[in-house]
Amino acid sequence: MNYQWYPGHMTKARRMMEENIKLIDLVIELVDARIPLASRNPDIDALGKNKFRLVLLNKSDLADERANKLWKEYFEEKGSYVLEVDSRSGSGIKAIHGLVQKACKEKIERDRKRGILNRPVRAMVVGIPNVGKSTFINSFAGKACTKTGNKPGVTKGKQWIRLNKSLELLDTPGILWPKFENQEVGLKLALIGSMNDNIISGAEMAVRLIDMLKERYGGALQQRYGVEEEKENFEILEDIARKRGCLLRGEELNTEKAAALLLDDFRSGRLGRITLEMPDEER
Question: For the whole model, what pTM was predicted?
């Protein structure tokens, strides 16, 4: 299956970001801690060239703790400031202000020497769809500034948010990139819900997820559903359908319903804390 999703509003959003980058001191990039590389839009590197960078490993509560630490080290070695955060609970959010000041220390000092006092740091918040940007901004601001939703494409345009006298945020829509060179990246993005689920076969995604779980987190499926993991992947999906009563008329197994159940359990963390890629693996 070919994984691709690039609706027209994303082209418009990218142009808007290009036009506004000159106003920005810092790029705050949210990535999904379960797939930190696959959830990075390669266009952001070109867009944010010569800007200070802060990478937030969002949804870190859903990802493997050991993997979070390795990914933090990975991005720090690349020259970014990094934090593990969970925007929904607010975990890690308080540490951001201090890190923003640290990341922009040169800029603040430069302004001071020029006699420019109290000019706020301007940060552009970027990331792929459904990575949790709006939830992060609302949590960071301590109030509902933006619309949120558990699906891609909720934020449609730019929005300036003044947090305090020292920091302003530019919220931007989540954007993907026009073509995935590696379809594994597309698959991982589909698994975390960064694409429109209606254009993708749930059963196919579930079978691929089962394969990854067997390889990386053996026993997770058995523990959650009571299924034998030695079977073929589609047979395991059928067993999940059987165990959870996902049936059509005439006792026929409803594998699409079982697939939706499995994907929802993965996305919500009910399968455990899972990371689908590690820094020492090729993208």
Answer: 0.88
